[in-house]
Amino acid sequence: AQSVTQLDSHVSVSEGTPVLLRCNYSSSYSPSLFWYVQHPNKGLQLLLKYTSAATLVKGINGFEAEFKKSETSFHLTKPSAHMSDAAEYFCVVTQREAGGYNKLIFGAGTRLAVHP
Amino acid sequence: DTEVTQTPKHLVMGMTNKKSLKCEQHMGHRAMYWYKQKAKKPPELMFVYSYEKLSINESVPSRFSPECPNSSLLNLHLHALQPEDSALYLCASSQFMNTEAFFGQGTRLTVV
Hints:
Chain A is built from no helices and 12 strands. Chain A is mainly β.
């Protein structure tokens, strides 16, 4: 079975400084990995995805993530935080199911706070 | 159009009421999902429909009854809920394996 561990439940940064949200995964096969963002009382928005193409994945709003198989990591980064980045971030791995769909395995989430 | 639309956005219901949540997507996705999300927690899978057939029921109580009338629509019928069922209910859809899921904005349900 697949699993995901988000190493920090809370991260606090100042506006304009880099963001690093850490995610480790466990998978018995080459995984698909995603980062989703959730603003308060909103649904989940896909930030970026890794599906066995380039290991450095660029997403929306300046975010990117690097897939490192040797470290089983998929950390999310952004060079310069913006106040609007304050939200909950979920690292997700897919688990293949026989019925022709993906079961999403969620990490516990990391709450990002951005201070002026 | 990469949108999943959920209605209503907010719902308050009594424990004896019957209500329904609706979800619609027009991306041609053949898998649709219901998730329940409590505050400060990740979403928990409730049901999966694959090709309009119920594929997964994650041991959800029978007071929640899903329905997939066609490939674009997904409903969640609610009856005799408990206050602990109050949560954000999220609908999502995806194509096939190794593709991303698209989420709706959710329905904030309060049971009184």
